């Protein structure tokens, strides 16, 4: 009679934790983003016997618009859901009555609630939703980053009886390694966010790729955009600081939004002026596509400016006027500056010329003026407004305006 087949012993908590930690440090940290890492990590836990229904990871961000980003993993969902919370939501009732507020704001290290043993009223409103989904147990814990920044991770199960002692021991054992990986991904995201915010997405990508040596760069053909706010000096003298900053932010939101929505990139803000580029693609050798995008952006910006002015006038506030200049030419795109302080920007005669063209907008009472190079690429939309001298050039240049007048400049600076 054959002996009974041997049954492989179940792996111990230590062995299971070791496998998850090794995966986190060798593979998990190379995940392209939080979503992928979160999905793979949760499935690793399930493979180790932890019965997950849902998991949530919430991370505070250093971002101009977003305070917190949360990643929701659900057992039967095809992908991880992402939710962001804007600045100010930290004072909302929804946040203050959540378990995460208890952990982040009140300093608790962890929470556990046996949902299947509880009845309303719930200590946190989210528990009613989880219980309706069949959840039996809820655990939340803090994940600390270097410097003490508190992040939160929660796990929910629908197994009768909830999480076992072994389940929680496994999660606790892998938490330090998970925190290290999350911090690595957070720092990567932070670097991208800061660069996108302060130098633009295209330039930020170049910097992250290692293009940071002073003097490095490339020649790029592009449509250059330069806009300037009229009457800003008198406004700055009269308006309180907070109102002036809000006015500038609203103006740049209109100009920058129109540029970026059509594939342009903001190079820099110079006081109340903005420099941007629309690089020519290989499939656009004449620049017609880039010029079209730039002109479309200019018209959108002026339309939005007119709407904003109508609102400001209705409230008795000063209206805004601006000039936008477009020129197509070659620029040097790269690192310029001192040994320890660099600016990744564009320089060259084309940049100087587009700023000089913008200076003609007020004198010619035009919202938009372009060079002959732009007019050649988009002749059907532009009309010559004559030859005019510009600072720095011996000979006058011919400039062009929109055939369809978009009126935001008519009127006074007030």
Automatic annotation (TrEMBL):
Superkingdom in the source lineage: Bacteria
A UniProt-annotated Pfam family: Guanylate_cyc
Keyword Plastid: no
Enzyme Commission identifier(s): 4.6.1.1
Protein keywords: Lyase
Top EC group: lyase
Guanylate cyclase domain span: 223-358
Gene Ontology BP annotations: cAMP biosynthetic process; intracellular signal transduction
InterPro entries referenced in this protein's UniProt entry, alphabetically: A/G_cyclase (IPR001054), Adenylyl/Guanylyl_Cyclase_3/4 (IPR050697), Nucleotide_cyclase (IPR029787)
GO function terms (MF aspect): adenylate cyclase activity
Keyword presence, Metal-binding: no
PANTHER family xref list: ADENYLATE CYCLASE, TERMINAL-DIFFERENTIATION SPECIFIC-RELATED, BLR2264 PROTEIN
Protein name per UniProt: Adenylate/Guanylate cyclase
Native source species: Azospirillum baldaniorum
Taxon lineage: Bacteria, Pseudomonadati, Pseudomonadota, Alphaproteobacteria, Rhodospirillales
């Amino acid at each position: 009679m054959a002996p009974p087949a041997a049954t492989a012993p179940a792996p111990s908590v230590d062995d299971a934790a070791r496998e998850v930690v090794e995966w986190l440090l060798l593979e998990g940290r190379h995940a392209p983003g939080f979503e992928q890492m979160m999905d793979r990590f949760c499935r690793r836990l399930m493979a180790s016997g932890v019965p997950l229904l849902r998991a949530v990871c919430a991370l505070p961000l250093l971002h101009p618009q977003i305070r917190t980003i949360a990643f929701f993993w659900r057992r039967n969902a095809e992908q991880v859901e992402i939710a962001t919370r804007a600045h100010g939501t930290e004072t909302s009732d929804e946040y203050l009555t959540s378990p995460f507020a208890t952990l982040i704001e009140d300093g608790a290290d962890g929470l556990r609630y046996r949902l299947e043993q509880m009845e309303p009223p719930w200590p946190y409103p989210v528990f009613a939703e989880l219980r309706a989904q069949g959840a039996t147990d809820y655990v939340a814990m803090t994940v600390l980053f270097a410097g003490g920044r508190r992040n939160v991770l929660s796990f929910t199960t629908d197994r009768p009886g909830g999480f076992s002692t072994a389940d929680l021991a496994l999660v606790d054992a892998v938490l330090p390694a998970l925190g290290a990986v999350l911090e690595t991904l957070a720092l990567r995201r932070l670097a991208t966010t800061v660069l996108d915010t302060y130098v633009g997405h295209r330039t930020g990508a170049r910097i992250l790729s290692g293009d940071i040596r002073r003097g490095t760069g490339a020649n790029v053909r592009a449509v250059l955009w330069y806009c300037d706010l009229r009457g800003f000096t008198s406004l700055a003298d009269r308006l309180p600081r907070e109102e002036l900053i809000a006015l500038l932010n609203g103006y740049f939101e209109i100009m920058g939004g129109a540029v970026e929505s059509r594939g342009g990139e903001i190079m820099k803000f110079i006081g109340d002026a903005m420099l941007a580029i629309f690089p020519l693609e290989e499939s656009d050798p004449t620049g017609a596509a880039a010029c079209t995008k730039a002109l479309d952006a200019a018209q959108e910006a002026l339309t939005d400016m007119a709407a904003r002015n109508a609102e400001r006038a209705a409230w008795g506030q000063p209206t805004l006027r601006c000039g936008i200049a477009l020129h197509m030419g070659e620029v040097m795109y790269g690192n310029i500056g001192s040994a320890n302080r660099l600016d990744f920007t564009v320089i060259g005669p084309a940049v100087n010329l587009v700023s000089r063209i913008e200076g003609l907008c007020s004198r010619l009472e035009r919202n938009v003026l372009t060079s002959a190079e732009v007019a050649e690429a988009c002749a059907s939309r532009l009309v010559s407004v004559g030859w005019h001298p510009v600072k720095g050039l011996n000979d006058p240049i011919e400039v062009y305006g929109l055939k369809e007048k978009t009126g935001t400049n008519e009127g006074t600076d007030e």
